[in-house]
Amino acid sequence: MIPIAYSTEVAEARKNGTAIVALESTIITHGMPFPQNVDTARLVENDIRAAGATPATIAVLDGQLHVGLEDIALDALGQAQNVSKLSRADFAACIAQGGTGSTTVAATMIAAHLAGIDVFATGGIGGVHRGAELSFDISADLQELAQTPVIVVAAGAKAILDLPKTFEVLETLGVPVIAYGQDVLPAFWSAQTDMAAPLRMDSADEIATAQKTRTAMGLRGGQLVTNPIPQQDEIPAETLAPIIAQALSEADARGISSKDVTPFLLGRIFELTEGRSLTANIALVRNNARLAAQIAIAMMK
Ligand code: PSU
């Protein structure tokens, strides 16, 4: 096992055997501008505490894997430049080389599992990019869900993606995709789509029991819980469609590829919606954190 630096409150929760929710850091370094990124990270941590669990924000700082960031470290990470965006492929190399990196959904799942944490809250997972039939750009988040036993609570896959193909791939990989409290899948900034949810669950207990059953059956991997953004915070899909199309064509024209695509699109959509996409993103992450805390508590029963 590699050494892990736990924050004081995470170390305490581990000692007491109380519920912990993992949080990623790519959303801080690549998903939101400063200072909203740090403010949101703090709000989300407080939402988890208020719901009776302990937040564990994960990142690599100078080659050290951190599970739970002290406030000063969180603030520094939120303003740091040239932080690597880590996924399964480059996570170990960053630690080995003494680097600093933020963890995507895939890397956060790996770290959470190493630290014995069952539940993780984020905004939206990565997935199959539009045009993937030519670019082959498919997020490593999908493979990770298939192999690492962590429950990921997200507001769906980000709507900049090809959502039908993303959910096809999840099905092929054997990942349970659960819609929380509704029959259709949500689409990140929008609460609803016309895509039927493969599974629907209405309580944290149900979600925890389903994951425990998977483990008891020897099935690998986690579950994706898609939690719709609260109605009052959503941006309707019709409003967003032309904005997403414009951002995508600009990314294309500039030749943006691979790991840079998602941060570019999120940044452009923020500008084109005059900040509305960020307000929605903050609301949905907080909503996911609250549900994740309930699931983490249910997992301890
Ligand atoms: N959720 C958000 N904003 C983000 C992300 C999630 O609200 O920026 C990050 C996650 O870390 C996720 C990554 O793993 O976006 C997906 O990047 P890619 O499409 O390059 O795999």
UniProtKB/TrEMBL annotation:
Record's keyword terms, sorted: Glycosidase, Hydrolase, Lyase, Manganese, Metal-binding
Enzyme active site: 24, 158
InterPro entries for the chain: Indigdn_synthA-like, PsuG
Necessary cofactors: Mn(2+)
Pfam hit, one: Indigoidine_A
Annotated Mn(2+) binding sites: 137
Documented EC number(s): 4.2.1.70
Binding site for substrate: 85, 105, 139-141
GO molecular function list: hydrolase activity, acting on glycosyl bonds
Coiled-coil features, chain-numbered ranges: none
Subunit structure: Homotrimer.
Matching PANTHER family: CARBOHYDRATE KINASE PFKB DOMAIN-CONTAINING PROTEIN, ZGC:136858
Family as reported in the entry's similarity comment: Belongs to the pseudouridine-5'-phosphate glycosidase family.
General function of this protein: Catalyzes the reversible cleavage of pseudouridine 5'-phosphate (PsiMP) to ribose 5-phosphate and uracil. Functions biologically in the cleavage direction, as part of a pseudouridine degradation pathway.
Protein name per UniProt: Pseudouridine-5'-phosphate glycosidase
Species annotation: Yoonia phaeophyticola
